[in-house]
Amino acid sequence: MNPFSKTYDPNDDLALVHEAREGSKIALDKLLRFHQGFIYNVALRLVRNPADAADLSQEAIIKVITKLNQFKGKSSFRTWIYKIVVNHFIKSKKRKSEIEINSFDKWGKFLDTAYSTEEMTTEEHKKYEEEIVFVRNNCMTSMLLCLNRQQRMVFILGAVFNIKSNIASQLLDISAENFRQQLSRAKADLFQFMENKCGLMNPNNPCRCAKKTKGFIKDGLIDLSKNRFKSELVKEIREIAIENNSKLDNLIEGKYLSFFRQQPYENKNLTHELLKSLLVNKDIIELFRLN
Questions:
Q1: What is the CA radius of gyration of the chain?
Q2: Which residues contact 167 (CB under 8 A, 6 or more apart)?
Q3: What burial class does residue 126 get, using C-beta atoms within 10 Å of its C-beta: 0-12 exposed, 13-18 middle, 19+ buried?
Q4: Which residue in 57, 216, 235, 255 has a CA-CA distance of 20 to 30 Å to 244?
């Protein structure tokens, strides 16, 4: 569920917030379950690694829980919670992936040199179709790491999940015009790189997902026996980001964005174990008078 879609009803959140403050574990659980999927999927695009994304999401969720009694209703709960989440995401410590990949030059050199001579047969293409898609998605997320965190967050909100500038700008505490300018710059940097390096965008480019996939399999970097590469896929992002922007989709950049929106929207349940630990926490119980 995308809490930024037209089907979002702010009254649902308000009712759950009220009940949670009155001590309802069930309401607190429902509130967090509604938002945690989107939080995790944004975090995953921000730091790439699923374990790091889960940790980052849980940190943000804990921060939201401890601040819940500070919500005054001056803005929508959606704006309030995601301002906390986005601010935490941008200011938190760098994860390993962000240190490994921090520039277009660095990632470009990897794409140019790694497994550049590998070739897949037609049969191998069919056999390893899911692995190739996984490598493609991982590469696209790695490209995002070449942007700084602010640029990444702007691109994730505005281009990947297609959140309107008047809403997304509030989460970043900037003007809508500033958000649009930052989004435009992030797109330009990213799409220029893709046009120069990515074989999906330009057939003259040597980089091919299949070549990389075959190399990764040969070197044991994709564990076929355990299927560790497989996503907990329920939908694609394009199904979640349902508010189509026809002006955007009709532009040439639509071909670039389609690959980002085809990435899996992962069904990762962060709240079960988190809530089990939180709901026995003495401070949390006292804070919410949980029953």
A1: 20
A2: 4, 79
A3: exposed
A4: 57
